[in-house]
Amino acid sequence: MTVNQNISLDSDPVLLEIFWNRLSSLVTEQAVNIIRTSFSPLVREAGDIATALFDRKGRMLAHGQTGTPGHLIPMTRTVLEFLAEFPIDTLKPGDVFITNDPWKTTGHFFDITVASPIFDGGTLIGFAASTAHHADIGGTGFGASANDVFEEGLFIPVCKMYDAGVRNDTLFRLIRANVREPDAVVGDLDAQNAANEAAGRAMRELIHEYAIHDLDAVVEEIFLRSERAARQALREVPNGSYTSVLNLDGYDEPIKVVLTLHIRDEEIEADFTGTSPQIRKGINVCENYTFGYVAFALRCAIGREIPHNFGSLSTFKLNAAPGLIVSCTFPAPVAARHLVGQMIPGLVLQTLAQAWPDKVMADGAGSVWGVTLNGQTREGRPYAAVALIAGGIGARSAKDGLSTMQYPTGTRCVPVEVLELEAPFIYYGKELLTDSGGAGRFRGGLGQRVTLEVVPEGSSCVVNLVCDKTRIGPQGLFDGLPGQIGRTLGRDGVPVHPKQRFVVEDSQYLVLETPGGGGYGDPRQRDRAAVRRDLALGYISEQAAREIYGLVD
Amino acid sequence: MSRKLRLGVDIGGTFTDLVLADVVGVLATEKVLTNPRNPIVAIVEGVERLLAQAGSDASEIVDTVHGTTLVTNAVIEGKGAKTALVTTKGFRDVLEIGREWRYDIYDIDLDPPPILIERGSRYEIEERVLASGEMRVPAEAPAIEQLARTLPADLEALAVCFLHSYVNPANERKVRDQLQELRPGLAISISSDVAPEIREVERMSTTIVNAYVQPLVRPYLSQLREGLSGAGVEGNLYVFLSNGGVVTAEQASDYPVRIVESGPAAGVTGAAMLSRHIDEEHVVALDMGGTTAKICFIDHGQPTISRDFEVARAYRFKPGSGIPLKVASVELLEIGAGGGSIAGLSEMGLLRVGPASAGANPGPVSYGLGGTEPTVTDADLVLGYLNPDYFLGGRMKLDLDGATSAIGRVLGASFEGNAVRAAWGIHRVVNENMANALRVHAAERGVDTARYALLASGGASGLHACRVAEAVRVDRVICPRGASVFSANGMLMAPLTFDFVRTRKFALDTIDWDQCRRLYDDMKAQAVELMEKSRIKAENIEFKASCDMRIVGQGYEIEVPFSLSAMGPDTVDTLSEGYQEIYLRLYGRMTSGLGVEVLNWRLTASGPRPDSSVAFRRAAQTTGEGKTRLAYFPETGQVETPVLARPQLALGTVVPGPAIFEEPDTTVIVPPNWTAQIDQDGNLIIDRKREARQS
């Protein structure tokens, strides 16, 4: 469609909307293509991926409408990190950058970011990038057991995957030699690169179609409007400083995350002063990942329709001194950083509740539990399977919490039948857990009990458990009770370490009970019909109905 | 003289559409108001009017094809039968736990997808089959007897879904057979019959929907038969399927879940037939109604079929918010763009249209029924595209002043008080929304929209089609005649069709062809038996085989066709090549060095295509009165634009845009840079002027 030339794109609410939508849909396309062709189980079944477009200065303009927030927002900074290493004036068409530096991208080696500059003629117009959770990266696997980052596998510093179109064969040989599934990893890197190229091509076409001569002006207008909208939304939240504390299992010793939200007119600062220091096991979080989940949670509560980009994100500030568990320093181990990082949204919303009680929800199970299995069949075929197991989400101000739902990630569980077909799992049950949801006027979502056995049949396999909130359950809000803690048990109820990595020779029986979400409001004020319904369906026990909810008849 | 007539009846939410046709083409069409409480009364009334119009006798009707929203509505409104579930011990909550996925990552207020069977009505039984098909725990008779005693006395339907029953259905069959004896009145659906493929959540919910609606569908169809019989219509009764085929009423009663998408699928079949009739190889059908627009790609006269479908979405346009169904259905992309879509400014100060809709009530401001938010219809009115005195053929008067002032109130500040410019903005943004969806959908399928023609059916399509076409580089728009009964017409063209599937995983190089041949022999035998019940001989059945293939370990399968007659070790090459070709088209790359495996084996059996035609008899030509009205186009500004009707056009007359075609049930806008002409059936063919083309 030809553009009406007497209207300039940057000030026209119609053309800008159209251009904006097109950008957004083309990055979504980019993501869809990677997901559909990925060899990594976490990408293809769980959608653990992010894609984005950047302006020519490396500032994030739009991201795909799918994937995980933990990737999306940290990626905002990745292109800037590439540019710090390779200045803009040295870039050539056909350059492709790559890194999995946890401190520069998304916080652990499994996530590899691939980015390419987009040229139109000889002019740099922007960047396309994607981050995907790969099938393997060497090291100890997807668990928390490493003592430093060197044990966690291959570190790919910021470097070129292609230089002016020439493939960096040394790099690919190095990667192949260091990962357990070289074909899958290289295949996915190629997919990321192809998707970036397609997005770049589409962006070029878009600019031609709309005959945009001054892309900078359009970009600045998008940033300006996003920032203005974000500031406007923040104005509605009462000023003040609000603090709350989150207690987590840690690895062997409990840890705490302390958050103070300073809300000043049009800005929010997330201050983690008082939080536990980093530890010697792989649940440390890099600052960029922490920032990602702070920004994600704030968007859930404030200005949900405002897209994340360089403009809107400028209203959020992070204050976390180096060396905390949420802002760890090299070479802290980080492989299972999501265990702590994905707890942050619950904490943010719990804290925000003091300022904005109606727009939040109580804390929930947070980071999704995982059982990873790596091994080989008797025929020698390698397999890698991840069973994700969700707990309950916290209750909302006017609705019960969602049961067995993954939050904050946008991932999903793999069907039992698929897991059993792909890997030596046998499931004995997958059931909702009575009384696991924190009682309240609105009840927290229920956790689940998964009973399974790993039976490698004649060959051994490695199991990694990543589970949390087994010491203190997710907290309730406004007199709502906490959700039930999680439990990890073996046969006959023998406790199993929730973050263990072990080799299975014959069989391993596991009972995994995920935590329930916290309740919202006084349980005695819960609608009686809702209490009776919960009782009839077995969501709560008779004892809870009587003693906690005060049901008399 | 007795003619062989065929009757199409499509029940929609507002209207019931009827079409009567013979082998030459359409004889008569009729539209009556749907009677939600007793739909059959309206059908009978419609049939009588139709016959009178055509001067035909009821006894001449040999086939009736019926499409209905009964199943969808029952599920959406929760008005199905009292249904329970029986599943493997330990797994009754699988249905509720689902895929643990939030369909909107930012919305903390969202509701979980609906579930039809609450926890108290989900039963478990000791049984277990492993992924290999190995029987670990057989279902034992005493346990089944115990179950029969536990099920409530007033239970009407039962869904049975056990883990891995798609590979070994023995336990499901045993439970069904024994329960059927103990509880003869119970309608039992088993998952290995209804949807025998891997992934327990989806298979379970498909089986449940089937059980849930079965006790409604069976009596409904027999009442329909009686109603028709009372009106003198005997002969075969067929029901239209979600996949574009038909089955007999008896078979529809056994597998009612397969008729969920009956109505919309009929529209697409109509579009597919028309595309064949007018020799358009690649067509994208656009059906823009009051609340949504639906899009479907049709290649070589065949609509795209999807194996995943959702019903009763909590949020209409959010995949994942509904009940997942493993049934073949025409792949329709539905987006929130319709005449009732509401326009406003976003938080970022940009013009946003939809997906919120004023629907039909209160509807657009111009309906004068209490709507206050400006909508797409209001914008179309302000632009001069709609005639305020001739909406629905003049049955409803539109309030132009109301529409103008509402647009001014909401958007005036952003458009210097110019309501016409604001209206153009609304018109353009909604077009772009449709174009965007179309583009993403095309990219997912690896096709280039520029090769397509746009077929515009449905109420508002004609107003927007050419502009959507411009935005996706399409040069031809077709506005079919009889758009208002398009679905009913489509139903008459569909052959008898059955779909079968079996899950057996093999690496491509280790396929056990003997086992596969047995799978196919079994499916074919089932097909032949079903076809013979409809008096279709085995030799007249067309079989199409395909399988779902994927790179080892990938989560998405690609359906690859192969020849059944040549099935054997040589098929490996066919499959491998077919897979590579489709994969390359979809993703633009091929990865070598990784094995390919087959997961599901499919068979589609079709009977002969009915002897029908979409052709309309040519209407008598009339003379125009030379009417015009003021309409806005950005290329020209506001201009006096000719207002025409199709019968005014002689064959071969070319009408240059801008022009407006106005008919009781539809209005078509021909913008500048486009020309319109009529074909012999009365379809409007609108082409972009050569000099305005981009490709």
UniProtKB/TrEMBL annotation, chain A:
Q: Where are the transmembrane segments?
A: none
Which parts of the sequence belong to the Hydantoinase B/oxoprolinase domain?
A: 12-523
Query: Which InterPro entries does the record cross-reference, listed alphabetically?
Result: Hydantoinase_B, Oxoprolinase-like
PANTHER family from the xrefs?
5-OXOPROLINASE RELATED, HYPOTHETICAL 5-OXOPROLINASE (EUROFUNG)-RELATED
Q: Which protein are we looking at?
A: Hydantoinase B/oxoprolinase family protein
From TrEMBL, chain B:
Question: Matching Pfam families, A to Z?
Answer: Hydant_A_C, Hydant_A_N, Hydantoinase_A
The protein's name in its UniProt record: Hydantoinase/oxoprolinase family protein
Residues in Hydantoinase A/oxoprolinase domain copies: 203-497
Segments forming domain Acetophenone carboxylase-like C-terminal: 517-680
Against InterPro entries, the record matches this protein to: ACX-like_C, ATPase_NBD, Hydant_A_N, Hydantoinase_A, Oxoprolinase-like
The Hydantoinase/oxoprolinase N-terminal domain sits at 6-181
